[in-house]
TrEMBL record:
Domain CsbD-like: start-end pairs: 5-57
InterPro entries (UniProt xref): CsbD, UPF0337_stress_rsp, YjbJ_sf
Protein family: Belongs to the UPF0337 (CsbD) family.
The protein, known as: CsbD family protein
Record organism: Methylobacterium marchantiae
Pfam family, one: CsbD
Regions of compositional bias (Basic and acidic residues) in chain numbering: 27-39
Transmembrane segments: 129-148
Leader sequence residues: none
Location of the region described as Disordered in the Swiss-Prot/TrEMBL record: 1-42
Keyword set includes Iron: no
Keyword annotations of the record: Membrane, Transmembrane, Transmembrane helix
Amino acid sequence: MVDTDRITGTAKELGGKVRGTVGDLTGSKRDSVEGRVREAQGASENLYGQAKDTVRDAAEHVVDTARDIGGKVRETVGNLIGSDDVEDRARRAQGAASDTYDRAEDAYENGGRYLRQGRREAASQIAEYPMAALLVAGLLGYGIGLLIHGRD
């Protein structure tokens, strides 16, 4: 589709040539100059229309190419997804992930239970033997102090 600027530009350019030629033939400098000015305006309008056509054509080409590439990607992905091997692998990976999650959830629950049992047992031992617990806590504190600051 040709841009309207190209059509009007060509018409102005032709009109300007005619007016300039008439001005040259009749000796009218005014008509000659105005004709040349009109011819230049028409030529620039025509070039502007050509540039718009070129940009529009390039944009259409880019859109067409993007659609082609998108179609090829969609087709390739569809072929992969439709493949029994890929679907089987995906199902196995999903099953393995589900199993791992279940085991992690069980470990978390067991860990919490063991922690509560250990806390109760420690509290029971501390309540039953407070002096021994104080001695053990002091020795642990001294040992940590040695580890952090070293022996002098």
